[in-house]
Amino acid sequence: NTVLVSACDANQVAVESQKVGHGLLTYYLTKGLAGPADLNKDGVITVEEAATFARKHIKSDGYEQDPQLEGDYVGKSFVGAVETTIPYGLVKSVSGKTVKLSLGKKDDVVEGSIYTIFPSDATQLTGQGKGKVKIVSLSENKSLATLIDGAVSQGDKAVLYAKPITSSKLLIYLEDPITDEDSPLFKRFAGQLKSAMTSSLKKQRFIQLVDRNVVPDKFIKTWISKTDGGKMLKVRMKVINVNLNKSWQPYEIKSSPGKLAEAGRKLIEKATEDELKMGYVLKNLIAIKNPAQAFKINLSVDKEVYKIGDTVKITVQPERDCYITVLDITTSGKAYVLFPNQYEKENLVRAGQRFTIPSVGDYEIEVGGPPGIEMVKVIATTKPLDLGSLNPDDPNSPIKFFSSDNLFQLVDLPTKDLNLVPVNQWASESVTFKIGERNIYREEREPLILPMLE
């Protein structure tokens, strides 16, 4: 009767996330067993529901990790008699307008969030409440807030009302180059290469270099070796994705010793256009989550694995009337606003309506590749997002698409339109799918060869 829940399949790596402070499976099982994993809302959380909840949220966070079940798990329950409640914290003390709350970083509290205050004996934690406070500082287990409206007393309950939506830089760790020879000459080569690459990375406003004590989003490894009879140097670089089973994209360039610094700059420029900008956008779109959303969106695609040239159908079903915006973050370095578009301009979807995109025969969504993992992000709002403010690559295209620096607009839009919007007025959901083989990162990719520098 034993049931084994493992963090991933045999071809994957189980991730310890610095952000959540736990292994991802442990974190989302714990979150789910508090109530949200009761997917069919029958008051019981089964083993399958808990694993499905964890798998879905791990995927939506951008991690390539599939929790597995073994044993006699069908129909087995983790938790019975589930009662879903609105999460709240307690007011620990009040001094003038300074309020101490029992909520901290462990509760996903962020500075600038606004909480509604309800009386200590309140059981219905909805509506206007008796006051509002704004978080000004926080630690792991508590936070300090300022009273901005109404009244507050010790023992009152605090419920999230609105949170700031901000962007985070892409964290990169640049390792010291590895050389063929342990000689003063090659040590000098290594120093020149790293200095040039560091300078190039620092010029990018969306990148933050970190040391080895911080878990990065990507880390960069380089190797320097002699080639062509010792007349030229070959530099190999790998940009390694921490979340995706430590998969990597290799790059390669040959240069004369005198142009080694230029070679380092060229490698970073190429990686920036090919994947670092998209990595920044993907990181921030994944992070757009409503921790207390009042309505759900069911989101799915019609396959788990697609071949290049296949067509994709996306289905959304919201629990309330809302405006749906669908973003597609591709593996090609482009991102699309798939919906609304020139073929389907009306994006108000009714509560319970099962809406499939495309819903008209005027267009198809075709998988372009290359092999990798593609993400679809849905943002649902009670008021339309300001999509008219976007400046796409081709304004005449019926479906807006963005590349290079234009990609950053897809981060700026939600940080502007969702910032401090009440949490009961928006929701988000995401889904990922594979392009190519099911285990797309099992083999090393061919390096991208840059032009030689003589």
Helical element count?
5
Q: What structural class do the secondary elements suggest?
A: alpha+beta
The number of strands is 29
Computed over alpha carbons, the radius of gyration is 25 Å
Q: Give me the CATH architecture of the largest domain, please.
A: Sandwich
Low-confidence stretches are none
Please identify the top-level CATH class of the largest domain.
Mainly Beta
Tell me what portion of residues adopts beta-strand conformation: 25-35%
Number of domains: 4
End-to-end C-alpha gap: 68 Å
CATH topology of the largest domain: Immunoglobulin-like
Helix content: 10-25%
Overall spatial form = globular
Report the biggest beta sheet as strand number plus sense, adding barrel if it closes.
Answer: 7 strands, mixed
What do the pLDDT scores average to? 89
Account of the 3D structure:
With 454 residues, this protein is an alpha+beta fold. The chain folds into four domains: 3-71, no CATH class; 88-162, Elongation Factor Tu (Ef-tu), domain 3 (Beta Barrel), CATH 2.40.30; 170-286, TolB, N-terminal domain (Rossmann fold); 290-435, Immunoglobulin-like (Sandwich), CATH 2.60.40.2550. The chain has five helices and 29 strands. It has helices at residues 24-33, 47-60, 184-202, 260-287, 409-417, and strands at residues 3-6, 16-17, 22-23, 45-46, 68-71, 77-79, 89-95, 98-101, 114-118, 131-138, 143-150, 157-162, 170-174, 178-179, 207-209, 218-227, 232-241, 247-255, 297-301, 305-306, 314-318, 322-329, 334-339, 348-349, 355-357, 372-381, 400-403, 426-435, 448-449. The strands form seven sheets. Strands 13, 14, 15, 16, 17, 18 and 29 form a seven-stranded mixed sheet that branches. Strand 2 (16-17) and strand 3 form a beta hairpin. Helix 3 (184-202) packs across helix 4. The longest helix has 28 residues, at 260-287. The mean pLDDT is 89.
